[in-house]
Design brief:
Blueprint lengths: L1 E7 L5 E7 L9 E5 L3 E3 L13 E4 L6 E12 L5 E10 L11 E4 L4 E9 L7 E9 L5 E13 L2
Antiparallel strand pairs: 1-2, 3-11, 4-11, 5-10, 6-9, 6-11, 7-8, 7-10
């Protein structure tokens, strides 16, 4: 038996994620994306003009989730960094932090991604939202932003 989860992102595009119901370590995966290229000059984590992407889900009883981030990221000033992270709100809370972030240096846009394991979460509805900043100088620009959250069973 298989199941499919379908969601819609902030720009109205839909995505589907399928899983087979056999020995696996994950429950339903939730994902969203924002294709629009937008920028910030903030040195603190902020929302861009189009907030997100964001997903709302409930962690499994294991309290573990994998958070996958990716995007096309650049800082227009050589030697300075653009950073993409995520915050949690609702049943579990966490501010965006460099510990759970993607970063790239300089004026050449790079497509990067990373996966972060979170543990100790309560099994209550939680919203994960991508956040953005740059370091000391320049403008951080972010496009093709993706956020996927996978609750783990074990």
């Amino acid at each position: 038996t298989a199941s499919t989860l379908t969601g819609t992102n902030a720009e109205g595009a839909s995505s589907s994620f399928a899983r087979a119901d056999h020995n696996h370590a994950f429950t339903a995966t939730t994902g969203a994306e924002v294709a629009t290229s937008q920028s910030t000059t903030s040195t603190s984590y902020v929302d861009l003009a189009t907030v997100g992407p964001s997903v709302t889900m409930t962690p499994s009883a294991s309290g573990k989730v994998l958070v996958h981030l990716s995007g096309l990221i650049e800082n227009d000033t050589s030697g300075h960094v653009a950073v993409m992270s995520f915050a949690m709100s609702g049943g579990n809370t966490q501010a965006a932090a460099d510990e759970f972030a993607l970063s790239t240096d300089g004026p050449i846009a790079q497509r990067i991604g990373g996966t972060f394991l979170l543990t100790g979460l309560a099994a209550v509805s939680t919203t994960f939202t991508a956040k953005y900043r740059r370091t000391s100088t320049g403008t951080g620009t972010f496009a093709d932003r993706k956020l996927v959250v996978q609750p783990m069973l074990t």
